[in-house]
Amino acid sequence: MSNANLIILLSTLSTGLILGAIFALVAAGVTIVYGSIWMPNAANGQFFVLAALFGWTMTVGWGLSPWVAALLVIGLSVPLSYILEILLIRRFYDVPNRNISYFVLSLGITQILAGIYAITYGRWSDQFQLPPLVGGITLIGPFPIANNRLMVLAIALAILAALFILLRFHRYGRALRAVFQNREAATLRGVNVRAIYSLSFILGNAVIFAGGVLFALAYSFDLTVAWTMAITAFAIMIIGGPGSVLGAVVVGMVFGFTQAIVSIFASPTIAAFSYLGAMLLILLFKPSGVFAR
Amino acid sequence: MSMVLRSVALALLAGTASLAAQAEEKPPVKIGFVTELTGPWSFFGTSCVAGLKLAEQQINTSGKRRIDFVITDNQTNPAQAVAASRSLDVQDKVLALSGPTSSDTGLAQYGYAEQNKVPFIAPVAAFPQLTKPGTRYTFRLEPNAAGWGYAIAKFVEQRKPGAKIALIYSDYALMRAITAGLKYQAPLSKLNIVADIVFPQGANDATVQAAQVLAAQPDYVFVSGAGGFDNTITNQLLDLGIKPEQIIHPFGITTQVINWGKRSVGSFYGTFFDSNLDALTTEGKTFVEQFTAQNGRPPSYVENFCYVTANVIREVIDKNPDVADDREKFRDAMSALKTKETTSGIPIEFDKNGARKEYIYFMQIQDVGEKSYKAKQTFYTEWDPEVIPVYTLVK
Amino acid sequence: MTAMPAENTPRGLAVHWPLAAFTVAAVLVPTLLSGNRYLAFVAGMTLLHILWATGMNLLYGYTGLMPLMFAGLAGISAYFVVNLTSIGWSFWLALPVGTLAASVAGTILGLPSLRLKGFYFTLCSLVIQTVITLGFVYFASITNGDTGISQIPRPSIPGGGELTGLGYEIVIAVMAAIGIAVLMLIVRSPFGRRLAAIREDDGLAETLGINVTYQKLAAFFIGSLYAGVGGALYAPYIGFISPRSFDVLISMNIWLMVAFGGRGTIWGPVFGAMLLAPIPFLLQDYYTVKDILYGVLIIAVTILMPGGLASGFRRKVPKAAVAQDIPARRLDPRRAA
Questions:
Q1: Measured on CA atoms in the order C275, C276, C282, C286, is the torsion positive or negative?
Q2: CA A251, CA B283: separation in Å to the nearest integer?
């Protein structure tokens, strides 16, 4: 294989991995919220961008280290989610078919946040680029990759691993999975379903925020990424199976690689078409998703 | 009887009074300035407004009829540009429209202006169709973008005959037009296009595409991303080992050059005015000084075109005061205008479609600081607007 | 349409004074405002949104489907009309063709509603809307991509001249009035009652012998006609279209007009459109406030007044459109087999 082709191959692999890990994070966040409280959060892309914007303000505006900023942003998601949960989300916990109400609600939130960003951040939309976590470049064979991106990839994978461990081995994780599977049974077994709801909403959003701030650390971004991300995360959730974190991770990785590979041969628009097409087919023929329990 | 007399007397009185006070009391002339204050093109729009503001302070000297620019945001969104134009046209009754610095919004506004017969002065929108045959109300200061493509081919041909060029750019009307001109002229200039990579709007990453460019082994790389993405592409090319001397940006304004940073020293960019030009007029030097004093950075062609736009409108109204209240007359006066850019001395004259004699400078970056940069003029060319079939190359 | 009994129609409409009042007002308002072209234009846009909201009302209010691809359908019609007129067709011929294209597309894209309900159908329609928008951007040879198409010629009037200004607003007003009249006829017809039965419970409707497939597709066909006529009129009226003129936000806005005014009533959505459609034009200088305001209204409608203005601010448990959380497959085992 010629050097040039090797460079293309390695760049595709690295891009696929980083994008895939970030997609997986966001989709995992969306699917945790949907699996527990039935909220299909269309505002996930706006939350994602909110994290990225906070990260930008903290590093570029206030001069904080990107490490500190990333931790602060993820930390900040907790009180913000909790306030939102108290104000809006909680009201619907007892509504029998709440997912469509939540869906509409989240579309409303999307519109509000998009309007707020346009007023507050719109004028800087050409400048959203964060300082790197670490400097320097590593050569993988002939292919140079920024250490910063490797670090972002490592962190994203670490968060995903932590999430798995939490859901599988921690008491909360077991309770959460019990709620995923059967609310009534979980209640009977003494699980405080409402507390699990609140926790899941906060946890899901924290993971989405992590995805947003990591994306901002790896790539430049603008406000339009919100809608693309929202649709992509939905597509991943539906294909992977709503409520299945494993599905979200696997399909998220597949999407990351698809995006990287398709952009070699065709326009990235084709990649978007292919996601959406796959999502429609799954919706129509196996709405419980590929990784349904 | 007495009532009639009194009203006649009143009318007479009013007549003389208005004559005496004409210069001061006539309402200001309003120009609707719809530009990119937010959205991906905001770095152009805000630069433009900075140039316009400087001109606004200078052109409204006492004794002259005031010219007010009603500045409105178009969010880099064509639909918003049309909506704002309509509001300015019908509600504010502006004499003329101006302002867009992106071809997408410019085209939308052009459609509105031509259809509703509102004179439209495009400071910085380069899509060829803005001056397509049959255009009547639109006048454009910036050379058309298909022509830039022609000029880039000429520039590369002069530097390295038979060179291989790779193209990597965002899918905006402006970039489509430049590359159409470049692709048309390349074979005529005996250049070889070895890669042609387009990003959709809103793209974030160029790692794979930069690798593809590298694999094509070009002598020169034409790079043009929208907004912050321009930096992303440039940096990823440099990361992979493309030399700065191989990179040609079709256009560069101050904020862009500063954002490219030190690692881009040696790269080329096209421009129509730059503080580092070999030949600036005295007024041009004053403009650079005043602008730098006010904004903390030197102006580039966007600031200049918007500054010139305000000056051109002032000049037309000063020469023929009666055009200030009549759009048709204003259009005719614009069409007949023969003047020069005060800052660089380059002539301004519009052909029957509202296009100017076209020109471009290529600069090579020498040094980049926090708020300023040094560049060297390496190439200049001028051409007739229709030297290549610009109006049929891009739809 | 076919299900509409003819004997019902003339009597039903003749005595219907609100419709008569609306028609008079719809023609009169732009006429009175024509001194100020901008306000007249805002009135024209409002009437256009009334037409769209009425179509959305048929689908959302009376059939219980929330089609977020509504604006995309309007876009299909608009691009058809613009392309056909640019190759020399008369606008008046292009309008029905574009409308029909939108309706056929709407009927086909409505097919998923046969399997999917509630949230799943809404999500599906959101995906479809996104695909349509991407398509508008991607097939630039027809749509001119994100740059959009400007200088769309105004319709010519038989006998010379162009349809502009007040004349255009009156055409839109008449179309809006016809749209409302058609919806009234549908609602009173057996077809309308079948749709209402489907909205309440389509499994039950099926067991009552209603051909759910046929009724839903007919509803999509007719609802899309509204989108199509509106889109065809929109393009030359504004003079400019781009993919963003018909994106998901527009669908949401139209949906909001219906939900805010009161779905499932004839006049609720009309008032919803009257109140909400002029806002972006009147707030031209504070346009971003529009997004925030619409967003807040969406949330307010969902939480505080699920019945919309028409039902007042009674606080009650939100009743979802067709509140089925599970896909149709599980409701209807026969189809899954």
A1: positive
A2: 62
- Could you state, in order of their start, the residue ranges of all structural domains in chain B? 25-143+281-356, 146-271+359-393
Q: Do A234 and C123 touch (CB under 8 A)?
A: yes
The distance of Cα B13 from the centroid of its chain, to the nearest Å, equals 47
The percentage of residues in chain B with a pLDDT greater than 70, rounded to a whole number, is: 94
Residue type, C301: V
Which residue of chain C comes nearest to B85, CA vs CA? C284
CA C97/CA B78 separation, integer angstroms: 27
Domain spans, chain C: 6-336
Residue A88, CA distances (Å) to A95, A96, A202, C302, C304 in order? 13, 16, 13, 10, 11
In a domain, A76, yes or no: yes
- Residue contact A220–B232, C-beta within 8 A: yes
The two structure tokens encoding residue C116? 């999917």
Question: Any idea which architecture B25-143+281-356 has in CATH?
Answer: 3-Layer(aba) Sandwich (3.40)
Comparing A169-173, A188-192, B87-91, B329-333, the range with the smallest average pLDDT is A188-192
Interface test with A, best of C288, C290, C293, C329 (most A CBs within 10 A): C288
What is the arrangement of strands in the sheet containing B138-140, beginning at the earlier edge strand? B67-73, B29-35, B96-98, B120-122, B138-140
> Which of C 135-154 lie inside 8 A of B, CB atoms?
137, 141, 144-148, 150-152
Q: Do A125 and B40 make contact, defined as CB atoms within 8 angstroms?
A: yes
Cα dihedral A94, A99, A105, A110 sign: positive
Chains near C (3 or more Cβ pairs under 8 Å): A, B
How far apart (Å, rounded) are the C-alpha atoms in residues C147 and B176? 11
C127 touches A: beta carbon within 8 Å: yes
Look up residue B347 and give its two tokens: 């002539």
Angle between helices B173-188 and B103-116 (to 10 degrees): 100
Closest partner CB to A263 (pick from B39, B208, B214): B208
Nearest CA in chain C to A89: C303
The Cα angle at residue C164 between residues C158 and C169, in degrees rounded to 5: 105
Distance CA A101, CA C39 (A): 36
Query: Considering the domain C6-336 in this protein, what is its CATH number?
Result: 1.10.3470
What is the domain-level CATH number for residue A137?
A: 1.10.3470
A37 Cβ contact list (under 8 Å, min separation 6): A89, A93, A98, A102, A197, A200, A201
Please indicate, yes or no, if residue A192 is contained in any of the structural domains.
yes
Among all residues of chain A, which has the CA nearest to that of B73?
A123
Domain span holding position A171: 10-285
Asked whether B255 and B47 are in contact (CB, 8 A), the reply is yes
- Partners of A99 on chain C (C-beta within 8 Å) are 118-119, 325
Write out the H or E segment, with its range, that includes residue B23: helix B22-25
Asked: is B146-271+359-393 a CATH 3.40.50.2300 domain? The reply is: yes
Whether residue A215 contacts residue A22, with contact meaning beta carbons closer than 8 Å, is answered with yes
Mean pLDDT by 10 residues, chain C (337 residues): 43 70 90 86 94 96 92 97 94 96 95 84 91 90 86 86 88 96 94 91 86 92 97 93 90 93 92 91 75 90 82 48 39 35
Contacts of B214 in chain A (CB under 8 A): 4, 7
pLDDT score for C251: 95
Q: Distance (Å, rounded) from C-alpha B135 to C-alpha A133?
A: 53
Burial class (CB in 10 A: 0-12, 13-18, 19+), C209: exposed
Rounded-to-integer distance, Cα C280 and Cα B338, Å: 41
Q: Which of B207, B239, B240, B302 would best serve as a mutation to test chain A binding (most A beta carbons within 10 A)? A: B207
Nearest chain A Cα distance for residue C287, angstroms: 9
* ipTM confidence: 0.88
